[in-house]
């Protein structure tokens, strides 16, 4: 079973803490919002402007991304816990 | 008796819990907003931009969709309890 | 005496409870906002965009519509109690 | 002395209660906002869009209108108590 | 020393109470916001839309205007107490 | 060391009280927000509209301006205490 | 490992206090928001308007910038503590 996000929504599979620290990213322990790391597993067709034109998203399937800790809606799909969020909740791509 | 939603509104028939777990989606029990699963039974003609142009919706009759738990307005129509919501309340389509 | 609503406003005559249940719509008794049923008796010329272009409304005189319970402003006109609301308060048309 | 409202503003002379009930409009005594009846005595040149184009108003001098009870700013001009309000505060025209 | 307001700002010299009542305008003593009377002494070049186009103002130097009692910022310039406000704070022009 | 403000930001050097009163501007002591006087020392390239077009600012280096008392962010640069604010915080230019 | 910020986001490496005071900028100790100094290490492709057109950013890699003290999200990347913020959080460029 496949899930196709609508519009500017993106499905992200959170990476666990061990993978993160081994990957070189260590989240410091401060009061500030901490970004989390995850892998994009599905993207919508793009955001729609007022004139109906669709603007494709900048992230694509397979990208490793940073996103805000409280972003998105949790859902279990095919046994995995995933997050459905908007592309604007994603801060950038790790390359 | 038929119901035609206006503009970007969509009518969704919620699927019951049993069907959901057998379909592979299990909603984890966390404090986060949990998406619900339903079947689209009617869609509006589309959202209207400021210039009056109508942009057709991306969901269509028969789609199985995920939507936020508190989305929409409940109404009984032809003996069924349905939800009238905006397309933006729908997170994506299960294929 | 006739009343012509301005812009995107619509005049709706609420249908009483008996007619509603016999017509097949039963409003379940939950905490959610319950839609009401009514008949459109007058419509404005349409909403005006920023560029001054008028977009005609999708509802028309005689339509039976569902609208939110707390929508509109009550007024007595020609002995009838009517509601003046915006088209965006109307969820859809019963056909 | 004459008063010319700016942009989308309109000057309305409220009609007194007696005239209203004899004219067929009776305002029911509920908790909802009650519309009031008045006569338009002056209108602005129109609302201006972002591009500077002026869109003329739909109400004109002499129209009998319904407006929200708490709309507008009271001013005495030539011995009469008038209301200066925006056209969007006017619900419709009695014909 | 001269003062040139920016964009859609206008400089207004408030007229004192005596002049106002002799001029035919009497502000009734109610709880509503009372408009004040003043003379425009300087106007900006106009409001700028998103596309950078300047839309000239509708009021001009010398106009006698009504404005909301709490509008604008007080400043003493050349010995006079003046108000700097936006054109949208002005309700209309007395002719 | 030079500072170039971004977009529609402006750097203003506040003028001290003595210079202000000798210049003819006296700020009355009321509860209203009091405008302050300063000299523009640097301006950004302009505000950018949604379409990416840059609209140059109306104030320029050397202008003496009035601005709201609580506008801007204080910074010490080259020994001077300066304010970085947006052009929209500036009320007008003294000529 | 490299990080590519999305859209109008910018990665800034905060400069420590000593470098700042030797560089000529001294932040006065007031209640106002104090700007901080940092070096831009990565920039997004630009902000996207409603029509999908990308507007490149005005800051570039290597720029020394001032930004608000509470701007951005802290992240450790390659052993360095960096800030991910939007370009609009940046006040200007030190040259």
From TrEMBL, chains A, B, C, D, E, F, G:
InterPro entries the UniProt entry points to: Chaperonin_GroES, Chaperonin_GroES_sf, Chaprnonin_Cpn10_CS, GroES-like_sf
Coiled-coil annotated spans: none
Taxonomic lineage of the native organism: Bacteria, Pseudomonadati, Pseudomonadota, Alphaproteobacteria, Rhodospirillales
Protein name: Co-chaperonin GroES
Record's function text: Together with the chaperonin GroEL, plays an essential role in assisting protein folding. The GroEL-GroES system forms a nano-cage that allows encapsulation of the non-native substrate proteins and provides a physical environment optimized to promote and accelerate protein folding. GroES binds to the apical surface of the GroEL ring, thereby capping the opening of the GroEL channel.
Pfam families: Cpn10 (PF00166)
Chief localization: cytoplasm
Subcellular location: Cytoplasm
Lineage: superkingdom: Bacteria
Species in which this protein is naturally found: Kiloniella laminariae
């Amino acid at each position: 079973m496949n899930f196709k996000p609508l519009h500017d929504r993106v499905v992200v599979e959170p990476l666990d803490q061990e993978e993160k620290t081994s990957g070189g990213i260590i989240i410091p322990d401060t009061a500030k919002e901490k970004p989390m790391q995850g892998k994009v597993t599905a993207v919508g067709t793009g955001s729609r402007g007022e004139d109906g034109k669709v603007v494709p998203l900048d992230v694509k399937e397979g990208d490793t991304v940073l996103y805000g800790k409280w972003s998105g809606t949790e859902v279990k799909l095919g046994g995995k816990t995933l997050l459905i969020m908007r592309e604007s909740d994603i801060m950038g791509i790790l390359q």
